[in-house]
């Protein structure tokens, strides 16, 4: 994945979605929270435009992987929280095992050269 | 509307997204600042990290909108079904209100739809001809003789074609029965013999083959015929090769040159064939008046222009041909043959039904207002508990709509059976009504109006809520307004006044009309209709060409009938004794040795040809002299019987018997006819027509091809129908018997329109009155309910019951009395305009007005007394505690 994610939108999109699902396995979170979690766990190597989270969130909500609700942030501001649905959780399990296999394969190929 | 409904409650997706994005950016700036960036740096870094805000936003909107549409629809559906459930619950809880309101709506919508469908079918019928508005009918009429809109003579039409400046084209025609012999047995059908331009004038052309051309009417060409679609289907199996084939009409071969379209009819749906006739010629004579004429109006020519043009022509003809045309006018009407009486009547019924709709709307409005008052507490409570006003409006809105839907559905139960009945009763006589059906446009308009009224007034309580705070409304509810200040309900009073005014009007018109029609039927016809069987025989000309031969057949039927058992008398005439709406033959006559009658007062009489026994069969009393008998034959002295009115008119001082008159428009070559008898008057048109100057000639001396028979029976006439049939069959089994029925049935058919009119006016009035009285009742009942505590206090403090009741009545009766006054004024205006259909009843008949007014006031008073008395009887302690 390069610094310019728009060059390979499909791959990025699938990845971002998986990352969001993973972020939400710890409980409900708003978009800003998800961005901070991603920043922490990836050490900011993805250079993801934080704005691109939102179309993904809305798309995923429409697909039924997420559901949203309005709540209040720590500083008492109205904010939209997302949480995983059962379908989202199943999708994450299915896809992350697939991803791991793919990553292993790529790693093996790279090792052999 | 739907969209607005959605917006009322839907989420607003774009603003939600903006909210999310701005939260993120603000938090990001804070986060960066916490890491030590300066404000400005933090902002630009946050913008960089976030990316293109506009793109993110638009992607989110598109992503969301699709899902929003689904969920919004679901939300709206949920909200709506919730509202519908609430409305249903509210309607079932107040069952009395619901039933009453739905009933009013059903009657209001149903009767209006019926009435307007009916009137529309008559006034704007779907006539299957091109541009019907551009077609005029041309009639003769003679007001002196009391003859309105009758047929024209050939000579008059010829002059009209030559001299008119109003018409592009004029066609003349007559309907006659012919005998058709084709692929099947000989049959008697109706044919129209018309000038060859008829179809061109009507802007119609045959579906198969060709229309007439000018040469078709020439005497030396081969006769041709155009068939109706029905005749072509029934008799030729819809075989298109039948065009060009020959069929026998009245025994002569005619070539079928065309078949008219399925939907086409003109004048009568029973016409099955069209035959060409030559153009009317001036030599064709001014008598008899036996042709119909229609004309295509020239561009820019109105009926009024044409009427003026024709009137000038009629005046010229009256000068030039005084013997036949003096006193005769030409009347021009639209294609629909309405006389002034019918127009007035339709106008009257339309006025009544429209007002009934207005009254129904007012009544509904009042019911809803009263109910809104009742529910003010409920609504105020909901508002106080935080229900949004929109939500309350919505609920009331849905309730009103639910009510209207119920009422609208029930209205079909009212309208459909009535319309079906009208079609059955009148459709056979009036082709315009033969496919009368519920007019959906009218239904939509009337339902729409009541819906509007119910929505408007249903929402009043919610709208009023905004003018006062919920707290005020709650306070009012708890009885805070009793402090002696009388809160009038101006809107309700106006509505009640309106209802009462309409009811007064409807009632007065109904009573006037009922009196008029009882006059109508109370005037004796001058003949007996009890136990008389009547039928018509048409002797086919192809079989018995000469009138004497036909007369012999008709006479032998007459003789055969006389020999039947239980027959007291039998006679026949060339026409039915009575014809509603005119159309009977009249002739100018000359009286021997009476030069004193000035020529401009040409004597005239309605003519009829009758057989011996005619006056006896119809129990027309003989005044002097004798009636016809076997002595009067074709070769004996020409004789006549006249009516008493004719004797009085032309022989006021002398004896009519033995005097001689000349008929055939006093043609000098006509023989003198001796008056041998005077009989009582028989009213020729309808029972109110004043002109009964009639002269009867013996059938033996004026033979023809057709007679209407009258058979007076000793027992019930129905039991004799078979005998009559057998008697005719004995003479000639091929003779078709037409309209065999009792005299009563024939009369009922003649007057079915009048009866229907009476019924429709009566139904309208009953409903208007019931609504008005119940409106007054509910107004008082409501006032009483609201002031129960005040009343209880007054009773407890020793107020007399009569004083309290009087106070209550004053309040309710004021709008009612104003309504009655308005109704009386309106009735006076309308009934004078409608005097024409009131058959001589004074439109301002004081008895009717006074009795109706008293009756209504009494009913309104009684309706208000019931709840008022009930209130004063109630235990004051209970009443006080109840609030």
Q: Could you give a short description of this structure?
A:
The complex is a heterodimer of chains A (113) and B (883). With 113 residues, chain A is α+β, with helices and mostly antiparallel strands. Chain A has helices spanning 9-24, 31-42, 53-63, 86-112; strands at 66-72, 78-84.
Commentary on this structure:
The complex is a heterodimer of chains A (113) and B (883). With 113 residues, chain A is an alpha+beta fold. Chain A has a single domain, classed as Orthogonal Bundle (Arc Repressor Mutant, subunit A), CATH 1.10.10. In chain A, 58% of the residues lie in helices and 12% in strands. In chain A, helix 1 (9-24) crosses helix 3 (53-63). The longest helix of chain A has 27 residues, at 86-112. Chain A is globular and about 55 Å long. Chain B is of the alpha+beta class. In chain B, strands 15, 16, 17, 18, 19, 20, 21 and 22 form an 8-stranded mixed beta sheet that branches. Chain B is globular and about 135 Å long. Chains A and B meet through helix 2, helix 3 and strand 2 of A and helix 2 and helix 4 of B.
Give me the secondary-structure topology.
The complex is a heterodimer of chains A (113) and B (883).
Chain A: H1 9-24, H2 31-42, H3 53-63, E1 66-72, E2 78-84, H4 86-112
Antiparallel strand pairs in A: 1-2
Chain B: H1 2-9, H2 13-34, H3 39-50, H4 53-93, H5 95-123, E1 135-142, E2 147-150, E3 152-153, H6 154-163, E4 167-181, E5 187-195, H7 198-202, E6 208-209, E7 224-227, H8 229-236, E8 246-249, E9 252-259, E10 271-277, E11 289-297, H9 303-320, H10 322-325, E12 329-334, H11 340-374, H12 376-384, H13 389-427, H14 440-467, H15 470-477, H16 490-522, E13 532-538, H17 547-562, E14 567-573, E15 586-588, E16 590-591, E17 604-610, H18 614-617, E18 622-625, E19 639-643, H19 644-650, E20 660-662, E21 672-679, E22 694-698, E23 706-713, H20 721-731, E24 737-742, H21 743-750, H22 752-786, H23 788-796, H24 801-833, H25 846-873, H26 876-882
Parallel strand pairs in B: 5-10, 7-9, 17-22, 19-21
Antiparallel strand pairs in B: 1-2, 1-11, 1-12, 3-11, 4-5, 4-8, 4-11, 6-9, 7-10, 8-9, 13-23, 13-24, 14-23, 15-17, 16-20, 18-21, 19-22, 20-21
Helix pairs in contact in B: 2-3, 2-4, 4-13, 5-11, 5-13, 5-14, 5-22, 11-14, 11-16, 11-22, 12-15, 13-14, 16-22, 16-24, 16-25, 17-20, 22-24, 22-25, 23-26, 24-25
